[in-house]
């Protein structure tokens, strides 16, 4: 599967579920701040996806953990909330195998049976639309927040760092 296939799978899923969204093509942008500026969105509207490996006491699970781009993940809290004892970011090889995307281009949807989707509830509390790279660093989707929650059905897990 290529990133084009990820984009195609994503837009097909959104269309089949009558989601309200739009696609924006833009110059390559890897950092959340850069891409928000290019998209014309707030940094907090960005849905940042982190592929993590949660382990502990016989527990092993890959997780696509999604949170607002203006927040930082607390991986220890994520592990605890999922049922493990520790979590780490997956290797670039694991990320590629599980998402068919490069770092920074991962949409907040899991298309792999071994990749559990979780989202921090703050993602749904502040903005009517979420923005994310759609399998490519040059293509973004801006999606209605309620449609994302309805279609992706992530498990809601508090895992952002709280000051």
Polypeptide structure, described:
The chain is of the alpha/beta class. The protein has one domain: Alpha-Beta Complex (YbaK protein). 28% of the residues lie in helices and 31% in strands. It has five helices and eight strands; from the N terminus they run αβαββαβαβββαβ. The strands form two sheets. Strands 4-2-3-5-8 form a five-stranded mixed β-sheet. It has a three-stranded antiparallel β-sheet with strand order 1-7-6. The longest helix has 14 residues. It starts with a helix and ends in a 7-residue tail after the last strand. The mean pLDDT is 93.
The number of distinct helices, counting runs of at least 4 residues, comes to 5
Under the CATH scheme, which class? Alpha Beta
Number of strand elements = 8
CATH superfamily: YbaK/aminoacyl-tRNA synthetase-associated domain
Evaluate the radius of gyration: 15 Å
| Order of neighbouring strands in the sheet with most strands | 4-2-3-5-8
Into how many domains do the coordinates divide? 1
Taken from the alpha-carbon principal axes, the silhouette is: globular
Global structural class: alpha/beta
Could you state the order of secondary-structure elements as H and E? Answer: HEHEEHEHEEEHE
């Amino acid at each position: 599967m290529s990133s084009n296939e990820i984009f195609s799978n994503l837009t097909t899923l959104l269309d089949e579920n009558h989601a309200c969204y739009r696609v924006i093509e833009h110059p390559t942008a890897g950092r959340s701040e850069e891409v928000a500026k290019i998209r014309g969105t707030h940094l907090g509207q960005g849905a940042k996806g982190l592929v993590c490996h949660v382990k502990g006491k016989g527990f092993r699970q890959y997780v696509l953990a999604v949170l607002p781009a203006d927040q930082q993940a607390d991986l220890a809290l994520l592990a605890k909330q999922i049922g493990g004892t520790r979590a780490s970011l997956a290797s670039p090889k694991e990320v590629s195998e599980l998402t068919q995307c490069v770092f920074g281009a991962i949409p907040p949807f899991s298309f792999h049976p071994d990749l559990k989707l979780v989202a921090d509830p703050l993602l749904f509390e502040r903005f009517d639309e979420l923005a994310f790279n759609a399998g490519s660093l040059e293509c973004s989707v801006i999606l209605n927040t309620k449609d994302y929650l309805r279609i992706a059905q992530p498990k809601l897990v508090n895992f952002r760092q709280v000051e």
